[in-house]
Design a protein that fits this description.
The protein is built from twelve helices and four strands, in the order ββββαααααααααααα. With about 375 residues, it is mainly alpha-helical. The strands form two sheets. The protein has a two-stranded antiparallel sheet with strand order 1-2. A two-stranded antiparallel ribbon has the order 3-4.
């Protein structure tokens, strides 16, 4: 008989010498006797015994884990998932910006106008093709297009399109440094919204990190701080749309019963549906059709590759918001400007001004503070 099975879970079996002259041994079970009488024991005398070694049912045995050990492993796994989700989003976001920058530097001089919205449509269509190919191959699963699900997901795309439109319009009326200042204000708005709507707790160091990054953006924009009433309106509208997009995205990823790949599918299908009319009304489709230099295999391949990167960016964004929350998502978006500026310097020979170096340095300090605050918060939760 194995050690793991010698202790009965239904009661404790005791061997006791018989009072008979034969001195034989009989089994006496706690709570009963061989004469049919009940042996009564005080409740205080009964001790619950937990086996040190538990049988697995297959003849093997194992030592059970303590609740604290299990909790610690769960927290460690959660931290690792958050780190991986953040790294994936950051890498895909930086990659997407660099791909689009390469596309713009190669073809913008050939275009009489802008194709900002139409490029998003091209890339969304490419992302839909990617996810549908994965579904056809059996690598991923999600239900076919459903109008009811599309209606639930539509606010995400409406806010996303609003974010794109207000962001591009604000750049026409404001300098890039001023836009960066308001982007950092957007992060603070997102954090406040996360606290009010979802009850998230905010560390003092997190507030300090956002404050430092905002101060760095203001310092970088001190020589180019002109702003008009129209520019201010569009920047505030962009702040509201961006913050609303991130906050509603968290709600949508929790409430809409879809896999992440299903969300990628609906995200890009609806994005195409909403932005094609916009591209038509602002003349981008006409511009594209009247520019023969864009009707090449090279341009199509580069857009397809951008859509392929966008497919991964969509998945990484949804996963990052679900695993970490809107506040961390917003912070990563701000910190991404650092590797983008540095890689732009080496890849595209973009000069980095003294103000930009100041912003990069201060942003890194803010990022370090935010990381410390997040780690402290994780340790505090695991210690409960």
């Amino acid at each position: 008989m194995s050690i793991g099975s010698s202790i009965s879970s239904t009661g404790l079996t005791v061997r006791s010498p018989s009072n008979s002259k034969k001195n034989n041994m009989e089994d006496v079970e706690l709570g009963s006797s061989s004469h049919g009488r009940r042996l009564k024991a005080k409740e205080s005398d009964v001790v619950e015994m937990t086996p040190l070694i538990v049988g697995n049912g297959d003849g093997s045995s194992k030592i059970p884990q303590s609740p604290r050990q299990t909790s610690s492993e769960g927290e460690s796994s959660s931290c690792m998932k958050s780190f991986v989700a953040s790294a994936m989003y950051s890498g895909c976001s930086v990659g997407m910006v660099l791909v689009n920058k390469s596309l713009a530097s190669s073809y913008n001089h050939l275009i009489d106008g802008d194709l900002n919205f139409l490029l998003v449509v091209f890339q969304a269509i490419a992302a839909v093709i990617c996810v549908e190919v994965c579904k056809f191959a059996g690598w991923v699963e999600y239900p076919d297009f459903n109008l009811r699900t599309a209606k639930l997901w539509a606010p995400v795309n409406i806010l996303f399109c609003g974010m794109l439109f207000t962001g591009m319009t604000s750049l026409e009326h404001n300098s890039v440094p001023m836009v960066t200042v308001f982007k950092n204000i957007t992060n603070i708005m997102t954090t406040v919204g996360d606290c009010i709507i979802y009850g998230a707790s905010v560390e003092v160091l997190v507030i300090a990190a956002f404050g430092i990054m905002l101060a760095g953006a203001v310092m970088a924009a001190k020589n180019d701080a002109d702003i008009t009433t129209t520019g201010l309106f569009w920047m505030l509208a962009n702040c509201v749309c961006t913050s609303g997009y991130v906050l509603y995205l968290k709600y949508a990823t929790k409430s809409v019963k879809l896999s992440k790949f299903g969300m990628v599918f609906y995200n890009n299908v609806l994005c195409s549906v909403f932005l094609v009319p916009v591209s038509f009304m602002n003349g981008e489709i006409r511009t594209f059709l009247n520019t023969p230099a864009l009707h090449t295999v090279d341009y199509a391949v580069k857009n397809a590759f951008a859509g392929f990167v966008g497919f991964f960016l969509n998945f990484a964004s949804l996963n990052c918001v679900a695993q970490t929350g809107p506040t961390t998502y917003a912070m990563i978006g701000s910190l991404n400007k650092v590797p983008i500026a540095i890689m732009g310097y080496f890849i595209f020979d973009n000069a980095i001004s003294e103000e930009t170096w100041t912003f990069i340095s201060i942003s890194l300090i803010g990022g370090i503070l935010y990381t410390i605050a997040t780690l402290r918060s994780g340790r505090r939760k695991s210690g409960k």
